Structure formats: C-alpha cells, structure tokens
Amino acid sequence: MANARPPALDTPFEIGGVTVPNRLYRAPLLECAGNGPGAVDALVAELEPAAAAGAGLVCQGATIVRPEGGCAAPGMTRVHDPEFVAELERLTDAIHAHGGKIAVQLEHGGLRSMETWHREFRRANPDLHQLAVSEPPFVLRALDGAGLLSYDPHVLSTSEVYDLAADFGRSAAMAVDAGYDLIHLAGANMGIVHQFLSPFYNRRDDEFGDGARFLELVREEIGDRAGDVPVMTKVPAETDAPPFVRRRLSADDCVRLCERLDAAGYDALVPVSGSVFWDMSIVRGEFPARSWRDERFREGYAAAFGSRPRAALVALANWVESLGYGFDPAWNEALCRRVRERVDVPVLCEGGVRDGATIDRLLGDACDAVGMGRPFYAEPRLPARLLDRATGSGAAARDGTGGSGDATDGQVAVACENCNNCVVPQAAGEAGVCRTPAVLGRVGERRAADEYDRPDGSD
Ligand SMILES: Cc1cc2nc3c(=O)[nH]c(=O)nc-3n(C[C@H](O)[C@H](O)[C@H](O)COP(=O)(O)O)c2cc1C
Ligand code: SF4
C-alpha cells in the first residue's frame, strides 16, 4: 500500500465542525492582560499579530471562570463577568478579520493558585482559600510546614464540584456570544482540572474520585449552556516525577483518558507530558539566569516570594529543576502519536516544536496540527515565516536560504532559544515578552528583511 502523503502545514482541518484554515496554532500563553480598562486592547495587541501573520488557530492563555481566587499567576484575565466577556468581541473580530480562529482557554488554578505561593497576594487576601479536589498531598503539606508554600485549602463538596463545572459552562456560553470559535480547557499544567485527573492530587471518595468524570461533567455543562461549540482540552501524562511520588498518570493512563474524552464528546485533544508539580517540565529549556539577576525585577520577586533571600532560594530550586528539564525537541511527539492511533478526533501537538523538518515529521503521523508557545513571544508574527516556507512564497523562501540565521538544511527554524527569560519575570507581575537581546536582535534583522510580511501584503 502506498504511504499517504502527510498533510502540509498550510492545509485546513476541522475541529468539531469548525474549519481551521491551516495546521499551525499559537499555544495558550499568559498575556498578563488582566481585566482592567486596557485589557481588551492588550489582548488584541498580543494576539492579533499571530493571526495577521497566518496562524490558523490562536489559543488565548488561560482565563479564570470565577470572580476571585484561582489565578496561577499575576495579571490573568477572568471570564466570569458578562459585561467584560462581551467586550472581547473586539478581540475575536480582530482575529476573524485575518481569517483565523480563536479559542478561549478556561481554567481555575486550585492548589496551584497565587493564594498558595504569592506572599504579597496572600497577605492582601487573607480570607481566600485554595479550592482543592482533596487535601493537599503529603509533599505539598511538608512544603507548607517548611514555610515555602501556604496552604489553607477548601476541599470541594460534591455539590460544589457541580457548581464549578457550571461556572465553566457559563463562561463558555459568554465566550461563544463574544465570537470565540472554540473552547479550550486548561486540563494540564497542574490547574484544578489536572488535579481532578491526577491520582497524586485526587483522593476523593465520591463520583469525582474518577477524575475524568469532572471533565465529562464540564463537557455536558458546556454543551447545555453554550450549544454545539467545539471543545478541546489538554490531557496530562505525569511521566516525570521523583520516586516518592507513588501515584501518578502514566502515558498509558493518558492514552486511556484521551479515548474516554473522545467518547465523551471532546472535539480535539492536546496530550502533554510533565510532572505532578508545577515546575519546568512544561517549559523545558535553560535556567533563566539573566531574568533572575535583573535588578528591575528584584523587588517584584521579593514581594512574590516573601523576601530577597527567599526569592534566592526559589531561584536555586529553579536551577536544580533546569538540570532535569533541559530542552527536549518535540517532547510530546511519542505521546501524541500513541493517542492519535486510538482516537478519532484531531490531536494537537505542542512543546519544543522548533523547525520545519520537525513540523513535517509530526504532521506525518503524530498529530493533525502543531503549536508553539514561547516562540510566539520572540516572534509574534512567526507564522509568516513558517507558512511561507510551506507555500514557498515568503521572503525567507524566496531567497532559498530559509531566512537569516535559520537551520543549515534550509528548513525554517524559530528564533526562540528556550532560555526561559520570558517566564520567571511573570511571577513579579511583568509582561510575557522575549527578554533575550541576542534573540531580539535577530528578530529585528528578520523584520528589516521583510521576513514577517505575508506575500499577499496582509499586515
Ligand atoms: C509563560 C508561559 C505561560 C503559559 N501559559 C499557559 C496557559 O495559560 N495555558 C496552557 O495550557 N499552557 C500554558 N503554557 C504552556 C504552553 O502552552 C506550551 O505548552 C509550552 O510553552 C510548551 O511549548 P513551547 O516549547 O513551544 O513553548 C505556558 C507557557 C509559558 C512559557
Ligand atoms: S526569552 Fe525569548 S528566547 Fe528565551 S525562551 Fe523566552 S521567547 Fe524564547
């Protein structure tokens, strides 16, 4: 039997009846736009360039479904308020004007929220409790005992789990009214959905002791309240964990979960591997020495972590983590391939995807679309270079080199160097932007060489 040709990056595909014009998406990344007067403008400024440069799907960073608590980091946007969500129509219009689709990602941080780790926030909100699936596991309680984290959890009763699922449904309905094409759930990265799925966090003895039941309920709530909008979710595999973590989601568990979510009506799945902790396993790369050293952020780190010495301790822990989570190209590839063999819905792959050759391989059999996160901080108009390589029409492709400073085989590669200097300052309330001068310099050269212009003249 002849091998079927893999679909090209610039060919459309469907998620739950919505046609996405190509297979390149911006993965959810925090925009730090908040909900203040400039929030919608900030979101448009952050997300429109990706669509203007051709991204088929733009996934907005996680947004919180409740009016208070639940934010994993400063500046997250909340989507509980109909008046505010209605204003987001300006954002969805801006994306649609370029032919792209946009997903809102719904989230609640649970035990990962700022009320656990951000000292200043905790002091300002002494009555806020973390929503918890179960009492925190022993290791986290030990960190609390050592004064490094601060737990004061409220374990959800069965009826409160139903209320939380309804909040996801209500926010989804508002988002659909505001023009979003898809609903994305923050099912991984240690938020509350992940905490339901994970045997490390979930020790419940009601129906939600089966964590997938929560995702099934959320799918029902969204269907009931928001109609037939497609719903996608990240699905975690907790493949990296220290030996004392006895219960975790294996890759096999993740594949089984994906089969179940397919059957439950999820329209696309994003399998991602990481650890049971909130650590560098989701942003594999270098220790961000430059951003820890940067004097401009020191006060912000001290406020977040309690003092300068405590911030130095967190930096040390971050350095230790970086030894275990160095950059690993396309680190979810094998997991996505396994899932794709078992489900009928599209599988989306992200995490360390960095060049054209890898994209071609992934689209061969591991997934239906490829996403990138940090590279969009470095190059907000990145799709122009990657897609024009696919059609052979952009500036990078026209001169036959793949563009300035690209991979030597002529394949286009991203500018991002996985140094993570964009990540840590967000703990201090700073914007998520590329903060590495050499990379920014290279991006500037590419801009000057018109490599981010689309051949059709769109801007
Ligand atoms: C600063 C930052 C914020 C992120 N925020 C989210 C988020 O809100 N929701 C989510 O599902 N993933 C989030 N991620 C994970 C990304 O979607 C992506 O999976 C990850 O960065 C790996 O892809 P990359 O190697 O292309 O950056 C975030 C990653 C970074 C670096
Ligand atoms: S600071 Fe820039 S180069 Fe470094 S990971 Fe972030 S976007 Fe990439």
Sequence-ordered SSE layout with sheet pairings:
Elements (H helix, E strand, L loop, with lengths): L12 E3 L2 E3 L3 E3 L12 H14 L4 E8 L12 E2 L3 H6 L1 H8 L4 E7 L6 H4 L1 H6 L6 E2 L5 H8 L8 E2 L2 H20 L4 E4 L6 H6 L14 H15 L4 E10 L10 H13 L4 E8 L13 H5 L1 H11 L2 H17 L8 H10 L5 E2 L6 H11 L2 E4 L1 H5 L3 H10 L3 H4 L38 H12 L11
Parallel strand pairs: 3-4, 3-13, 4-5, 4-6, 6-9, 7-8, 9-10, 10-11, 12-13
Antiparallel strand pairs: 1-2
The structure holds flavin mononucleotide (FMN) and iron/sulfur cluster.
Iron/sulfur cluster binds next to helix 16.
Q: Can you offer a commentary on this structure?
A:
- With 459 residues, this protein is an alpha/beta fold.
- The protein is 40% helix and 13% strand.
- The protein has 19 helices and 13 strands.
- The strands form 3 sheets. Strands 3, 4, 5, 6, 9, 10, 11, 12 and 13 form a 9-stranded parallel sheet that branches. A two-stranded antiparallel ribbon has the order 1-2. It has a two-stranded parallel ribbon with strand order 7-8.
- Strand 10, helix 10 and strand 11 (268-275) form a beta-alpha-beta unit.
- Helix 7 (158-177) crosses helix 9 (212-226) and helix 10 crosses helix 14 (333-342).
- The protein is globular, with a radius of gyration of 21 Å.
- The relative contact order is 0.12.
- Mean pLDDT is 92; it is low at 394-408.
- Iron/sulfur cluster is lined by residues 374, 377-378, 416-422, 434-436, 439.
**Assembly state (oligomeric):** single chain
Radius of gyration: 21 Å
Q: For the residues shown, what is the average pLDDT? A: 92
**Alpha-carbon distance between the two ends:** 44 Å
Number of strands: 13
Tell me, what is the CATH class? Alpha Beta
SSE-based structural type: alpha/beta
CATH 2nd-level architecture: Alpha-Beta Barrel
CATH superfamily (homologous) name: Aldolase class I
Uncertain stretches of 5 or more adjacent residues: 394-408
